[in-house]
Amino acid sequence: INQKFIQNGRKSSTGGKIEASHWHANGGKMKNERPSLLKKTQAGIRNGSITNPITVAIESENQGGFHSKISMRQHSFSSDQPFGFNGQNKGPKPSELVLAAVAACQETTWRIFAEDMGVEIDKIAVRLWGEQDLQGFMAMDEMVPAGFTKIWGEVLIESPASMETLLSLQSVVEKHCPALDDITRPVPVNLNVKKS
Q1: 20 to 30 Å CA-CA from 112: which of 44, 66, 92, 170?
Q2: CB atoms within 10 A of CB 99
Q3: For 14-88, where are the E strands, in sequence order?
């Protein structure tokens, strides 16, 4: 993923070095006197107060055609295909949801590690594109993947931190972003068919 960093003109005293988040707000670094979410979660995992591993669960139920109602926790939304693919366009299509999950997870991971490392981020946005060869989905060529053949995008950040600091933070984020890991590492998937 290509990164576009937008510095907001304020001077940064980071000198390109990411340090632990034990600093007061100062030239690109922010300090919250309380432990960061990362540190609190790490401590909870170590002392057993936080359940680990966790299970993430969703449920999708087809509503007719390609329209599906997807539910998780207290939330629900629709997925559908566009009009041009015999859908009713009642929501994003599944492949768009894959990209959306990666984008939102990137933003979350940037925020988590920026807070812990004391790097101030004023705004962050992610734009992603994915290319899909429909020959795979439509069973025309077994050598063509059914899903994306490539994904690319931009991470747009407004921050007083130096470019060197943001690039160092990027390397940490890309290593620890769960949704990015999900789509770049083979994950065992087992779907059982049950007759209801």
Answers
A1: 92
A2: 20
A3: 59-62, 68-72, 75-79
